Amino acid sequence: MNGGLIPLEWKQTVENKNKETRVPGMESTLYLGKKASNLDGWSFSTRSIFFCSGLTKSSAGKMKVYLTVCFMLSTFILIEAVGHFHDELFRDSDDQEIVYRVTRGAHSKKKDGECRYKKGPWSECDSSNMQKKTLTLKKGDSSCEQTKVISRKCKKACKYDKGDWSECDVSSNTRARTDSLKPESDSSCDPTRTISKKCKKVCRYSKQAAWSDCDPATGQKTKVLVLKKFRSEVAPQQCEANKKITKPCHKGSGHKGKGRQDYDEDE
């Protein structure tokens, strides 16, 4: 690349009168001014912007090539800019240390390095339910901060003894239990907590009844199940005393028994 930007086969002609540079294949003329005609000393990013700014009047065929080159240049510039971010958390080396990786720019003479910090103890939780820890520099170069402060939200150690579930409430179809706080828990925890959930409607029926004859009109046969028992959380009135079920008369119809139902059949 000539000057790190324009290929050698692209001949430049610089006229002394108006200091203009012409690039073959471009109808537009790029006026550089008195000092800008010499690209030496320009940064790569500046030269890339200059190159891409002269593509407005290029032919359609060459425009595609130029735009591809400009896209690649823009990607490189973006990567170069991101490279300047530093102090990225790298890893916890052990229980006593935290290591930060220092990432420097693409044109920096210094190599990427590490800042090794010694962990301090966590502070008490403040009024905003946050606690802090101070890190002290143990090993690293001059780019490392001497101390760093990290913070986190406090986790309450709330442990409860589970209570007994109540009977199912027919109106809401839910039941609840009240749990009590264990003595070793944090004093700021609620002394009790209430948990509720929906009742499972499981009605158990006897299947001693025989199937009826096939109904020619519907191609179905029926069986009447008699309620045998129900789970303790289900109110008796939620289960039907008798339940009528049907199934296709012929085999191979895809019927696979009771399927997903809210009842079970017992012998």
What descriptive keywords fit this protein?
single chain, 267 residues, alpha+beta, 5-stranded antiparallel β-sheet, flat, disordered N terminus
Task: Describe the secondary-structure layout.
Elements: E1 20-21, E2 30-31, H1 33-36, H2 44-53, H3 60-82, E3 88-91, E4 97-102, E5 113-119, E6 130-139, E7 147-153, E8 160-161, E9 174-181, E10 192-198, E11 203-206, E12 220-230, E13 242-248, E14 263-266
Parallel strand pairs: 11-14
Antiparallel strand pairs: 1-2, 3-4, 4-5, 5-6, 6-7, 8-9, 9-10, 11-12, 12-13
Helix pairs in contact: 2-3
Describe the model:
By secondary structure, this protein is an alpha+beta fold. Helices cover 14% and strands 30% of the residues. The N terminus and C terminus are likely disordered. Helix 2 runs antiparallel to helix 3. A 5-stranded antiparallel β-sheet has the order 3-4-5-6-7, with no helix packed on it.
Quick recap:
The chain has three helices and 14 strands. It has helices at 33-36, 44-53, 60-82; strands at 20-21, 30-31, 88-91, 97-102, 113-119, 130-139, 147-153, 160-161, 174-181, 192-198, 203-206, 220-230, 242-248, 263-266.
